[in-house]
Design a protein that fits this description.
- By secondary structure, the chain is an alpha+beta fold.
- Among the domains are: about 25-95, Roll (Class II Histocompatibility Antigen, M Beta Chain, Chain B, domain 1), CATH 3.10.320.10; about 110-200, Immunoglobulins (Immunoglobulin-like).
- About 25% of the residues lie in helices and about 40% in strands.
- It has 3 helices and 14 strands.
- Strand 4 and strand 5 form a beta hairpin.
- The longest helix is centred in the C-terminal third of the chain and has 42 residues, at about 205-245.
- It is a single-pass type I membrane protein.
- This is MHC class II protein alpha chain.
């Protein structure tokens, strides 16, 4: 049976500003499980990731610049040693965590949306957000017009939610063009097959409205110019006709 164990240490920070008080939740989250990814370690503040341990680069990766320069005691070796103990005791930890962490195979809720208002030809970022799933083993992939996209793609670690389920983001830098269709493909063991979520850029109303106004204005000016031209032509013919009669 597959097992996932979360070990969290929570620190409540109380900050007073004048007469107001702000409570912040800080957590050290250590994840070990018997499927890929088999380990993860990060620090979260108010359910946002502050930094995480990159086990390939063997260093901390900071998500919030304010914490730049922060280092974990023992570094990557110390964190890996702690996770190794977790893996060794995975069966026992699983029994102790029953009723606390979610049951396996909870499907993700997925949404796809742009970061900024869409403008043709202007660089933007498309976001695919998967939330509420368990365990932390979810693959995300971008496609444009049914073709796999790898350039301009970024994917986050797994973020723990308050109910101990997970969320994950993937970002795609793109330039909106008419006719393009984007797909976020999500694979999780709770799904019988990969789920696909489509997004296509729509013509912004502001751009459409401006084009309509300019077009209508151009037609109106053209009609007015034609009428003025006809009037001037008629008057000129009348003037010439009067001159001929006087001769």
């Amino acid at each position: 049976m597959r097992a996932t164990v979360l070990i969290t240490a929570t620190l409540i920070l109380l900050q007073a500003v004048g007469a107001l008080k702000y409570v912040h939740d800080g957590s050290l989250v250590s994840l070990c499980q018997d499927e890929a990814p088999d380990k993860q370690f990060d620090i979260e503040m108010d359910w946002d990731e502050v930094l995480y341990m990159d086990f390939e680069q063997k260093k901390e990766i900071v998500r919030i610049p304010h914490f730049d320069g922060h280092r974990m005691r023992g570094g990557e070796a110390g964190v890996s040693a702690g996770i190794a103990v977790c893996k060794h005791n995975l069966g026992g930890w699983k029994k102790k965590s029953q009723g606390v962490i979610p049951e396996p195979n909870i499907q993700p809720d997925v949404a796809v949306f742009p970061e900024d208002n869409v403008e043709w030809g202007v660089m933007n970022t498309l976001i695919c957000h998967a939330a509420g799933f368990f365990p932390a083993a979810l693959e995300m992939q971008w496609l444009r017009n049914n073709q796999k996209v790898t350039e301009g793609v970024n994917i986050t670690e797994y973020y723990m939610e308050e109910d101990y389920s997970f969320q994950r983001f993937t970002y795609l830098s793109f330039v909106p063009r008419p006719g393009d269709e984007y797909t976020c493909r999500v694979q999780h063991r709770s799904l019988d097959q990969p789920a696909v979520y489509f997004w296509g850029p729509e013509v912004p109303e502001a751009q459409t409205g401006a084009g309509t106004v300019i077009c209508a204005l151009g037609i109106s000016l053209g009609i007015i110019s034609a009428i003025v031209g006809i009037i001037l032509l008629v008057k000129e013919r009348q003037r010439l006709h009067s001159q001929q009669r006087s001769l």
